[in-house]
Amino acid sequence: MKRSLFGRLDAGAINVGIALTALRTNLMRSILTTLGVMIGVFAVTLAVAVGSGAQVSVMDSINALGSNMAIVFPQPDAEGGRSSFDRGRLTLRDARAIERSIPGVSAIAPQLRASVQMVAGGRRASTTAIGATSGFGAVAGVGAESGRFISEADVRSGARVAVLGPTVARKLFGTFDPVGEAFRIDRVPFTVIGVLETKGSSFGNDNDDTIVVPITAARARFSNSLPGPDDLHVLYVGFDDGTDLEESKREMTRLMRERYSVERRDVQPFTIRTTAEFIEESSQVTAIFQSVLVAIASISLLVGGIGIMNIMLVSVTERTREIGLRMALGAKRRDIRNQFLVEAAILCVIGGAIGIVLAFAAAAAFSVYADFPAQVGAGVATGAIVFSAVIGILFGGYPALRASRLSPIEALRSE
Amino acid sequence: MTRPLVEARDLAKDYRMGEETVHALRGVSCTVESGEFVAIMGASGSGKSTFMNMVGCLDVPSGGALLVDGVETGAMDSDALAELRNRTIGFVFQQFNLLARTSALDNVAVPLIYAGVRPGERQARARAKLEAMGLGDRLDHSPAKLSGGQQQRVAIARALVTEPKILLADEPTGALDSATSDEIMRIFQQRNDEGITIVLVTHEADIARYARRRILFRDGRIIDDELVSDRLIAV
Question: Which residues form the signal peptide (chain B) (predicted)?
Fold first, then answer.
């Protein structure tokens, strides 16, 4: 006899009724069992949320670098071969050669970096100064929020002007607009010409804690440990949209190896990285981060599931006689199986629902206190609900199956 | 000629108990016609309970054949047996076996759930059966609030609610005092007079006297099968 849809809905409603009666009968036990699932679902949901929040945050900070970019460092590339260089080399002439001969280059931003102490009025601050050219803003994707960015004229004349990151501006000048104000870097007077747009922070690293000065001023005024008057700490190379960064990196590498006469098997004195590589590596790292989080959280869900299985086995044992009676009255194996599956599912769904709600609340709190948001959305919620249902079926399945396989005579005879 | 409701042909049942094989039934042949009231008697271990489990389709034979309502049970799977039980047989147990914390009405309606009867009709039919048992004012009572006799009447209402052909009662008065036993037997006799077939398992000779026919089991065989000459009529 096939059952109609109505019949199945009706049977489902009956099973829910039976399950609720049974769960109410052992209320404390039911609550404790539910608690296990609740904690598990809470932990997994929160772990997923924090993990995907981290992923989004990392992508944001890479995009903040400028999405189509290569970075060249004067550091010997560690991969294989024997090194004929004590240290790396990277010069302004290399930068110009790259700009001239690599296709797709939209702009270059050669830079010097230095740790500096600043004084303005009575206030002090230390930060990393970037000595840059006027092209830096376009390549790195930063602009002036107020005032202006450094110009070609500033670079040519070696003007002692600076664009402050918002954090530095706040440290030195509080809430006042510092444009036009004077300050000193290691006793050398500089003038503020602008304040950078905020770029937020990524992984505890405040991107706004920096200042930008003309590269010429940096070379003349800041101590640096570079070997020549033309050497750079880092070079950003911006590319046109749609440029194949992998191909561009190969061409840049070929050009640079030629310039430094690097033999085929030798280590090159420079390292080239592209944003595409950063994105790939970072997503690998965040994926591992997320997997570890979820794996740890899953252990608590597993424990919750085992709790469900344990209590369902107890429930089946306690109600063996009832099972036998129902079978005598005409219950089929699937009727008994469904009855106990529904009971397990109710425990899981209630626990899962509370767990999700708590996880959303915790994620909201996390987003307030942490410097990256925990991403909770329909996807995470759906996943968690499906997950708790699966836990119910998985861990309730064995006890339910066991109940359905009881012999009616044995079951009726049990005390 | 009508076919018998229960027909056992050289029925055998063996159980394995560890290393040993127990021959619970060793070739039982008998028929029960529609409308009969049969008392199955015998000492514990005589095979009467095993026979009753077979007739109740709770178990299948390991030898011979058993036809219940014309169907051979030996080859049936558990689902088919469940359907046959639901449709053809009403069970009454010694310990009543009512669901605790469940109203009399809902207890009686349980077999109808498995018969696929709609909720409204379930309630109506369960109510009618309870009223017929004189329990119209106890519909919402849980078993704990009912006397033993009342509980057994609820159980009988449950057994009859699917309109089965056979009422199978296993020591139905075993947990009741003699006055209440008489009351329960009166209900059985009334239902039997209305046409339902009753198979009653008991070890009490006095209770067996309410039936029309008496079958005596010993060592897995029928050793006596006779009409009850000194029949008691419950008042």
Answer: none
Integer angstrom CA distances of residue B142 from A25, A199, B178: 14, 70, 24
**Least Cα separation, residue B181 to chain A (angstroms):** 22
Query: What residue in B sits closest to A405 (Cα-Cα)?
Result: B78
Q: Which of B219, B93, B223, B191 is nearest to B211 (CA)?
A: B191
- List the pLDDT tens digit at each of the 415 positions of chain A: 456 777 777 777 888 888 888 888 888 989 999 999 899 989 988 888 888 888 887 777 777 666 688 999 888 775 544 455 556 788 889 999 999 989 889 889 999 998 899 998 888 889 999 999 988 888 887 888 889 999 999 999 989 999 999 999 998 888 888 899 899 998 899 999 999 988 776 656 778 899 999 999 988 888 777 777 888 999 999 888 888 888 899 999 889 888 888 877 777 888 888 888 888 888 888 888 888 988 888 888 889 889 999 999 999 999 999 999 999 999 999 999 999 998 998 888 899 889 989 988 998 888 888 777 777 777 777 877 787 788 888 889 999 999 999 999 989 988 7
A335 touches B at CB < 8 Å: yes
Residues in A closer than 8 angstroms to B58, CB to CB, are 327-328, 408-409, 412
ipTM value: 0.95
For residue B115, the chain A residues in CB contact (below 8 A) are 330
Nearest-Cα distance to chain B for A25, in Å, is 9
The full set of domains in chain B, from first to last, is 6-227 (3.40.50.300)
Distance CA A251, CA A103 (A): 9
The ranges assigned to domains in chain A are 5-61+281-413, 75-269
CB contact under 8 A, A330 and B86: yes
The reported pTM is 0.73
Coil, strand, or helix at residue A86? coil
Helix axis angle for B119-132 and B104-114, nearest 10°, is 130
Looking at B173-235, list the stretches that DSSP marks H as alpha helix, in order from N- to C-terminal side. Answer: 178-193, 205-208
Q: Does the distance separating the beta carbons of A335 and B102 come in below 8 Å?
A: no
